[in-house]
Design brief:
The protein has one domain: ABC transporter involved in vitamin B12 uptake, BtuC. Helices cover 79% and strands 1% of the residues. The protein is built from 13 helices and two strands, in the order H-E-E-H-H-H-H-H-H-H-H-H-H-H-H. A two-stranded antiparallel ribbon has the order 1-2. It starts with a helix and ends with a helix.
Length: 331
């Protein structure tokens, strides 16, 4: 077992190395020309590689802290930040915007709507993710009963997913765009997206850290936590909102990136034993490292062709979970 401070330093060092790699990696291989005064390369690094690298790490950090919140709230190490209908809601929002854009393109010309389509997708994904969570809370009548909340999230996910499928079938353009969203990508991340992600991280991380004692209390069970005098219902609701905000912001900018929110807290728990306050912050760092590494691999493994980053995280996360299940079965 490592000390928490040691793990934090190691994760921060790994993040810095990945950031340097992200600035140097391009579609034509590795290049340090920007560091040698090449103006064209410097513009490429400033406008494309830097926001993509930083944005990918911020997405990973938000998913990591959302995963730690989900696992603490449901007291289940296999809980995922997409459980409460956020993924399905975001998917429906994206399909709705794509279908509307396709219809507008047929009416007034496709080039007239392409400039606004990306912004509309981001906003719709964020609004859809939050709407999915709110619908789950409404169906579960609050966040007071974790099992009911979990089941409500599954039901909402199925319903919103079915609605997105029906809408996509009616619009082939929406179907193609939805496929990119479902695979997850960091290709479209720019400085405006980084600003949104920074704002979400600056809001979510401090509040989640302040409320970590609620997650510590929930380890004792509902009765044990209530005996400490904590107002569990409103505090749990606030944690759900923070989880939804982190997930919605990440999904809106990068699509559905699988397994980062699930694996990051797992890796931290395997390396250190800490309370939830430190776990949330370390999970954010671990998520940033995981998605930063996936983004770098997506750009370089088959360059100049680029892989969907969500596909890489799904493969690595699936292999990790299979190894974990095999180890537990053997033991």
């Amino acid at each position: 077992m490592l000390r928490p401070s040691t793990l934090a330093v190691l994760l921060a060092a790994a993040a810095m190395l990945l950031a340097a790699g992200g600035l140097a990696a391009g579609s034509d291989g590795w290049s340090l020309a920007a560091l040698q005064g090449d103006a064209m390369q410097w513009a490429l690094v400033r406008d494309i590689r830097a926001p993509r690298t930083l944005g990918a790490m911020l997405v990973g950090a938000l998913l990591g802290v959302a995963g730690a919140l989900a696992q603490g709230l449901f007291r289940n190490p296999l809980a995922d930040p997409y459980l409460l209908g956020s993924a399905a809601g975001a998917g429906l929002g994206v399909v709705a915007v794509l279908a509307a854009g396709a219809a507008s393109g047929h009416l007034v010309g496709w080039t007239a709507v392409q400039g606004l389509l990306r912004l509309g997708m981001v906003g719709a994904a964020f609004a859809g993710a939050l709407a999915g969570v709110l619908l789950t809370l409404l169906l579960a009548r609050g966040a007071g009963r974790p099992l009911v909340l979990l089941l409500a999230g599954i039901v909402v996910g199925i319903l919103l997913g079915a609605a997105a499928e029906l809408l996509a079938l009616a619009s082939p353009e929406a179907l193609r765009g939805r496929q990119v969203f479902l695979l997850g990508t960091t290709s479209f991340l720019g400085w405006p997206g980084v600003a949104v992600l920074c704002g979400a991280a600056l809001l979510v991380l401090p509040l989640a850290w302040r409320l970590a004692r609620v997650l510590d209390a929930l380890v004792l069970g509902e009765a044990g936590a209530a005996s400490l005098g904590l107002p569990l219902a409103p505090l749990r609701l606030l944690l759900v909102v923070l989880m939804a905000l982190a997930t919605g912001a990440a999904v809106a900018q990068a699509g559905l990136v699988a397994f980062v929110g699930l694996v990051a807290p797992h890796l931290v728990r395997r390396l250190v034993t800490v309370a939830h306050g430190a776990l949330l912050l370390l999970s954010a760092l671990a998520g940033a490292v995981l998605l930063g590494a996936a983004d770098l691999a997506a750009r370089t493994l088959l360059a100049p062709q680029e892989l969907p980053v969500g596909l890489l995280t799904a493969v690595v996360g699936g292999v990790y979970l299979l190894a974990l299940l095999r180890r537990r079965a053997v033991s």
